[in-house]
Amino acid sequence: MQDKLSTQRTYALVGHGGSGKTSVAEMLLFNTSVINRLGKIDEGTTCLDYEPEEVKRRGGIQPGFGHYSWKKNQHFLIDAPGDNNFCGDLPYLLSAADGAVFVIDAVDGVKPLTKRFWAEVKKAGLPAMVVINKMDRDRADFEMAFGGLQEILGIKPVLLYLPLGSEADFKGVVDVLAQQALLFDDAGNLKPGEMPLDVADQVGTLRETMMENIAESDEELMEKYLEEGELTLPEMQAALRKGVLSCELVPVTVCAALTNRGGPLILDVIQDLLPSPLDHANWADSDGEERPSSPDAPTACFVFKTIADPFTGQLSVLRVLSGVLTPDMALFNPGKDAKERMGQLLLLQGKTTTPCKEPLGPGAIVAVAKLKSTTTADTLCDEKKPFQLAAPQLPTSMITYALGAEEKGEEDKVYAAVQKLLDEDVTLSLSRGEETGDMLLSGMGQMHIETAVEKCRRRYKVNIVLKPPKVPYRETIKGRAEVQGRHKKQSGGRGQFGDCWIRMEPLPRGAGYEFVDAIVGGAIPRQYIPAVDKGIQESSLRGVLAGYPLVDFKVTLFDGSFHTVDSSEMAFKVAGSLAFKKGAEEAKIKLLEPIVLMTVYTPDEFMGDIIGDLSSRRGKVLGTDSHAGVTEIRAHVPMSEVLEYAPTLRSMTGGQGTFVMEFDHYEECPPPVAEKVVAESKVKDE
User: For residue 217, how many C-alpha atoms fall within 13 Å in the half-sphere facing its CB?
Assistant: First the structure.
């Protein structure tokens, strides 16, 4: 099995939305005879984008999986979504790969989101190659796209194939290493041709640069290069692969995926330069213990994705980390302390599954149906040799919406339907608002949430209403107050009596709530004092002004009276509540609004527009930082002003801007905003 694994490749196709990753995957599957025609994203006919929501929006919303044989060598590919809304689980996808094929658009070049994806590839420690796609499109600019690799991404690119022509005149490439021109025929096949005279000098310069970059990655070769000024072709090829595996060098090729130009070149680079599973570094668990990526090690598999299949039910997609996986194998899930039987192993080709009866070693991507306890991010292993992979950290949710049922009484159905999606999409989270009782769905962006709701409606026939959640305002007091809370009730028999005096004072922002017992001389018996505290706390959660929790205040209980027969914990709890309401009104209440810290990433040319827009939302810009054409803007903005910011930013920047936000602090609401919030709360209470 070692020989077979040494030529096996498992890689992820990564790149920003619209760069043509899925078209590149389609071209590779076509050139390896997996499919007999090139599908098109615009027509919804690609092999890997098959969900109705993907066809509708003409782009991937979940990873696609495929496998093929190239020159008798097995390749597994993962097509990672490139939209900011659907790339939250990219760290999991990269953890299942040995290398990355990074796709750049020749028209748009390196975008802000491209930097984020490249940072994820680097963080995962994956050797990578770059494919500059869409060389046949109008406004294709190879020099701009290639230049951005070093200037913006900071990588050391090694150009293997120089394009001949661009746009409609993209007719072939020059193999820089072999200094040989290769021309496309009408079907996209390559045939040797004559190198144009006007590129001969450029090719010579590129080969010299390539030789220097390769030599720099190997000390022995560097010495030889400095002494002799030349390296042999075999030396360059061997050193190039070594430099790629060490992540020092990044080979670059070009293509036009929609017209099937450049597929075999990409397949050859993947085969010749990307790592095999045997080249992968040891896997580590959360305690730092390691497991080699070897077929001779105990079996371990990482479940990095779950798919809801309409025919076979839930599919767990896993990567074999070590050992050998066979059908009907019994494995152990240490995270759930449960045993699982694998059943049939399924190879994925888009939405098609094919049973696999052969044993599979490290690097294999395979699906298993109907596992009982296993979910995404679990490890399955040999029970006698347990191992649990330390799963990479996922980004935090960026936006939250409230969910409701279109028909009253169907809230439980909505909750159950959305809950089923959580197994499939780990970047979604479902919760209940503690203050509001709202059903809250959190995700990576507005489109992410809307697509999830759309999928729920289609699959589970549940009509869901999507609405922005209530902003978690707070109330607090401005001044001091000393008030009495007295509860006396007599209705025959034993009555109720509780009497307390409290002093209320404001605390610094963020201090919360403080209760001080200053009773002396037994004015209130010790057993009733916690009841006063509880009555105040419960009332503070309901607020006074607009129904929001009252925070950042201190209560001192300093006097009171009791009745030996009629006093009780309940009576003093009510007395505490009455005292709180009186005190809050006398101390004057003000409304606080949540402020988020926003970080916006945008091309430099949109910086002014974005700062102006943030200012119009009552935002305070804290600072900006520009690097390689991308500006980072940091600002404090009221949460109420940016609940639906994603589509605005997308519109302002042509889809090139991204942002993250997190809660930072509370500030006093401006009077016009406070009046509006209070008025809305009164309307809802009526």
Answer: 24
Q: What angle do CA 114, 215, 5 make, to 5 degrees?
A: 65
Q: For 602-622, write each residue's pLDDT tens digit.
A: 888 999 999 999 999 999 999
> Which residue type does 251 have?
P
pLDDT at 580 over 90: yes
Closest CA to 177 of 201, 210, 150, 149: 210
Amino acid sitting at position 100: A
Residue-range domains of the chain with CATH: 2-274 (3.40.50.300), 284-381 (2.40.30.10), 399-467 (3.30.70.870), 474-587 (3.30.230.10), 592-685 (3.30.70.240)
Confidence of residue 685 (pLDDT cuts 50, 70, 90): low
Read off the pTM.
0.79
SS (H, E, C) 80-126: CCCCCCCCCCHHHHHHCCCEEEEEEECCCECCHHHHHHHHHHHHHCC
Most confident of 309-318, 460-469, 582-591: 582-591
632-645 pLDDT per residue, tens: 899 999 989 988 78
Structure tokens at 562: 């009791």
Cβ neighbours around 449 below 10 Å, total: 23
